[in-house]
Design a protein that fits this description.
This protein has one domain: Nucleoside diphosphate kinase-like domain (Alpha-Beta Plaits, 2-Layer Sandwich), CATH 3.30.70.141. The model has no long low-confidence stretch (mean pLDDT 97). Helix 3 packs across helix 4. Strands 2-3-1-4 form a four-stranded antiparallel beta sheet. The protein is globular and about 35 Å long. It is an alpha+beta fold. Helices cover 40% and strands 17% of the residues. Bound molecules: adenosine-3',5'-cyclic-monophosphate (CMP).
């Protein structure tokens, strides 16, 4: 599992038509897509995915935003996938993201930050399995 991470291109980036450009940056950085789907989360499913943030003040806003429109979910493979992908996407708050990162380029705010990346190998497995059956992971 250490070679895999999970990502979601969020509703803000989908609405602005950035899905293709973001997938291209992911490929150019050497990640192989081993599962992918475009889907829309219900509020219930978004709440379940982000249950770890349930007690945070921004939880309601996060659930509302993540269920607002379509997302693209994917499992990615590369050596050191979790860490390298978090470098590629940049800081959670795009105002602090480095030049050349996906969030610097495409994110508007800490709430609407274009893309998600797993923060650990364990969560990469849990989050990938949330969206994809084993038969859908190549
Ligand atoms: P993500 O990496 O998907 O994981 C949790 C998300 O919560 C994060 O991206 C942000 O979109 C959101 N988030 C984190 N901090 C805040 C905040 N202070 N206000 C609103 N949303 C936040």
């Amino acid at each position: 599992m250490s070679r895999r991470t999970f990502t979601m291109i969020k509703p803000d980036a989908t609405e602005k038509g950035h899905t293709g450009a973001i997938l291209n940056m992911i490929n150019q950085a050497g990640f192989r897509i081993i599962a992918m789907k475009m889907t829309k989360l219900s509020a219930e499913k978004a709440g379940e995915f982000y249950a770890v943030h349930k007690e945070r003040p921004f939880y309601g806003e996060l659930v509302e935003f993540m269920s607002r429109g379509p997302i693209t979910a994917a499992i990615l493979e590369k050596d050191n996938a979790v860490e390298d992908f978090r470098k590629l996407i940049g800081a959670t708050n795009p105002a602090q993201a480095e030049e050349g990162t996906i969030r610097k380029k495409f994110a508007a705010s800490v709430g609407e930050n274009a893309i998600h990346g797993s923060d650990s190998n364990e969560n990469a497995g849990i989050e990938g399995d949330f969206f994809f059956s084993k038969l859908e992971q190549f």
